[in-house]
Amino acid sequence: MHWPFKITLKKQFSLLLLVVIVLFIAVGYVLQKKLEETQSILHELSNNTLPSMANASETAILSAELFLAIEQLTKANNPAARRIAQQEVQIKINETAEQAYRARNNPTEALQLKSLQEEVSQLTQFIDQKLNLAEQIANTLDHLIHFQTNANQHLLASHYNSEALTLWQLNFSKSNGLAYQSAHLERLNELSLLEKKANTLLDTLDTYAKQSPPNLQVFLRQFNDQLRLTLVSEQGLISLQKSYLKIAGRTRGREHFIRKLVEDYTNVNDQLAFNETANLKQEVLDLTKDIEKQKNWLMTALLIFAAMIGAILVHYRRVISRLKRLTNKLEGMATPKTGHNTQADEIDELFEAFEHFSTTIKDQTHRLETLSLTDSLTNIANRRAFDQKLQVDLATSQQVQEPLSILLIDIDYFKQYNDTYGHLKGDVALQKVANVLQQTLGDYGLVARYGGEEFVAILPSHDRTAAKDKAQQSIQAIATANIEHKKSHIANHLSISLGIVTHSPEQTADSDRLMKQADQALYQSKAQGRNQATHYNELI
User: Fold this and answer.
1) TM segments (predicted)?
2) How many CB atoms neighbour CB 197 within 10 A?
């Protein structure tokens, strides 16, 4: 090297040494900064991003469980079931709140959960009012039966016989019929029309009471007054049914609002989980770019400073070790992986571990959904799966313009079976019946456990005749199974009764109406001696 001015060898050496030292410091400084940035990204991944993803997944599962608990609360049909369901809802809300506090301690989520808890409390009050009104209606009907029996006994004992008295008895029976009809109406305008009919009948009863034998007029007027008080007074049966319909409507409205709250909360958490996933991908990409830059700096350092090779390798190993620990941590949070790519480097392994972790989360979510739609005892579809499938099949029936039938199935004298053989044998019997029904009807539609000893089947493209044939085949299949039942009043083996209803495409798709009609047909099968099938159209 030739310098433009005179410099001694000592100065030249010193200058070159100074340049080397400056370059060494510069390269070391840049390498140190890159390593700190890499360590910062790894620290963020290990301590923030991955725990946030795990918390988001757990929150989503808790939200799904909370949704199921609220659904059970709204379906409670007695105070004991309501208390159990409310306790389960409260537990799920508390678990969700604790999880949200651990994950983010977000005031907005806390306010959402507090609002949800207040709405559930209001819903519980509505359910209590509805159950109380239902009990009052049932008690009033019982009182009406006793009242009618007393009236008939008194008239028989009087030995009077006149046309006015006969007409009074006829209209008295019609009034009782209106009372039973009012307890099953579901529209307020229909109740108002029925109330007018009842008042007209009561006026007619007053007229016939005045035309009856003198010795019976006081007695008949008393019965008329008592009937008027029981039927059309402010505390009467019709008023109670009106109150029941109003509170039932408010209950449904509150239930839909709570469902919306839970859905909104779940959507927020799903969005947070999506954001965490996107952040993780971006941070991994940033980490990859930084490592590539660091490799370039290492190569440069190797070309310039052979003496720095050892230090650079040490730092490089530390980075790879942190990547390995991050990959192992991801794999430890997922299910064991069966295969391993021997050609993959550390970055590829990190991406593979992340993809495997995401797949595990999806599999767990799918298993949870499957469990929520399967009856744990009989291993067939449960009530929730049936409700969802019925909505889908009804919509399909409307589109393809084909009929759809529903079989509501009840095991005869099953309480006596449990009392005789015990509940463990009863569970085994339920499993056998479910298996027979699945084998008999499963190829034609969904078979589900409806609750207790009741089962239900959806038969798409089955009209009344085809559904009746499938019902008879089911009765015969259960008889052929020959499940011993010594306390049955029909045979020495288990038998079933069925109620059938068929939806025509020209009808409005109303699942609640269909199930009520199927239940009425089932009741008729039981009333006629059990071990038989009745179609709802046979009742019309």
Assistant:
1) 12-31, 297-316
2) 14
Looking at beta carbons, which pairs linking 91-94 to residues 24 or more positions away fall under 8 Å?
92/62, 92/65, 92/66, 93/66, 93/117, 93/120
Query: Are residues 249 and 243 in contact, defined by beta-carbon separation less than 8 angstroms?
Result: no
Collapsing DSSP to helix, strand or coil, 10 comes out as helix
> Phi first, then psi: what are they for 411, rounded to 5°?
-75, 130
**406 dihedral zone (left: phi>0; alpha: psi -120 to 50; beta):** beta
> How does pLDDT run across 201-231, given as a tens digit for each residue?
888 888 887 888 777 788 888 888 888 888 8
Provide the 8-state DSSP code for 374. B
* Structure tokens given for 502: 């068929």
Strands (E), 70-147: none
The beta-carbon contacts of 517-520 under 8 Å, at least 24 apart in sequence, are: 518/406, 518/407, 518/408, 518/456, 519/408
Can you tell me the distance from the alpha carbon of 462 to that of 503, in angstroms, rounded to the nearest whole number?
9
497 has pLDDT over 70: yes
- What confidence tens digit (pLDDT) does each residue in 57-76 have? 776 677 677 767 777 777 77
pLDDT in tens, 372-407: 789 999 999 999 999 999 999 999 999 999 999 999
